[in-house]
Each structure stands twice: as structure tokens, then as C-alpha cells.
Specification:
The chain has 207 residues and is α+β, with helices and mostly antiparallel strands. 43% of the residues lie in helices and 29% in strands. Strands 1, 2, 3, 4, 5, 6 and 7 form a 7-stranded antiparallel beta sheet that branches.
């Protein structure tokens, strides 16, 4: 498919449904991991161009933590969970049950592993939502974790995985355990023709 595609309101509603179902699965899984109640809500679902992603997460030079997974099967592409470093540290702190002053400025290997596990749970939950609502068969790779400037992370994703469609699905996610939210963005970056596959599986024409 070439050129710009029309994203209608009903189509975005289908994406929002995937986001909400995925958030419910992820909240249950994270609650079991941290042995405490975790609420996950989707505050926004929309479509953007790949070049807009750095601005969405605060700018190309903003230090960002990222968990990246590769999708294979009936729909191929990449999935990225991006969040500011401070938010990533809050999430890791809650997973370990430690205080803020107990975390060093840099991430330890154990903390990166915990962040990877959180991203893996989120990614897997949304993959489950997609497969449940569409019947598509999807597999996800072992997650890769990076802490770098947002622009550098996106450049690496393009280099490592090759061509990616220009459009991305954005699911803005809020994770709450206790009184403070951890805000992040989940991006689904389909390979060319992948978005058409997704929408046709949902029964909505992709024009």
C-alpha cells in the first residue's frame, strides 16, 4: 500500500478496544508480579507518523527507556514501550519494593532485567488482545532494552529491523500502583501492509 491512509473514528475505536483489553490483561499480570494491585489505563489511542514519535515522548534528545519487541506471524512489525527515565525508575522501584533514594542514577543489570520483564508483560498483553479480537496468529520476540536519547533509540530500531511502515499506532498508557502514575507510550510499528492486515482482520475497510 502506498500513500496516506484514511483513519476513521470507528477504526480508532477498534484500536482503543484493543488498548483497553490489553491494559486489563497487563494489570492482572503485573499485579501478580509485584504482589500488589496495579491499575493500567489507556488515556489516548491514535495514529502518528514514525517521524512524530520523538516529539510525542518529549523530544529526540530526551533520555528515554525503551523495551522493544519484534512481532512475527500474520502481522509483522515492531512494538516499543517508551517512557522517560524517571518514570522507568519509578516503575522499577515499585517492582523491587525499594525507596527512591535506594536507586542509583544508572540502571543496574537487575533493574534493566525488571524493566524488560515489565515491557514483556505489556507487549504480551496487547498481543493477546490483538489475537483475541482478530484471530490473527502472532508471536513476540525476547525483548531488548535500551536507555538512550529517543532519537538514537528510534534510529537503532530502524537499522536493526529494516524497513518499517511510516505510520504507527500510539497507545498512551498510565500504570498506577499506589498514589503515583507511571506514564509511558506503547507504539505498534507495523511492517508495510501490516496495518491493512490488522484492520481487515477487525472487519473494518482500510481505505
Amino acid at each position: 500500500m502506498n500513500g496516506d491512509m484514511t483513519w476513521t473514528d470507528p477504526a480508532l475505536g477498534l484500536l482503543a478496544e484493543i488498548g483497553n483489553v490489553g491494559a486489563g490483561h497487563a494489570a492482572t499480570a503485573l499485579s501478580m508480579l509485584v504482589q500488589d494491585r496495579v491499575n493500567i489505563s489507556v488515556t489516548q489511542t491514535r495514529v502518528c507518523r514514525f517521524c512524530e514519535i520523538p516529539d510525542i515522548v518529549g523530544g529526540a534528545e530526551r533520555m528515554t527507556a525503551a523495551v522493544v519487541l519484534r512481532l512475527e506471524g500474520d502481522l509483522t512489525g515492531n512494538m516499543m514501550f517508551l517512557l522517560p527515565v524517571a518514570a522507568a525508575k519509578r516503575l522499577v522501584r515499585r517492582m523491587f519494593g525499594t525507596g527512591e533514594d535506594e536507586l542509583d542514577e544508572d540502571f543496574t543489570e537487575m533493574e534493566l532485567s525488571a524493566l524488560s520483564e515489565a515491557g514483556n508483560i505489556l507487549g504480551g498483553s496487547y498481543v493477546t488482545a490483538v489475537t483475541g479480537l482478530t484471530g490473527l496468529h502472532l508471536n513476540q520476540s525476547v525483548p531488548a532494552v535500551a536507555v538512550d536519547m529517543a532519537g538514537a533509540i528510534l534510529g537503532t530500531v530502524l537499522t536493526d529491523t529494516g524497513q518499517t511502515a511510516d505510520q504507527a499506532v500510539v497507545i498512551r498508557t498510565s500504570i498506577r500502583q499506589g498514589v503515583t502514575d507511571v506514564e509511558g507510550h506503547l507504539f505498534v510499528l507495523p511492517d508495510p501492509d501490516g496495518v491493512e492486515t490488522l484492520f481487515r482482520a477487525l472487519g473494518w475497510p482500510y481505505e
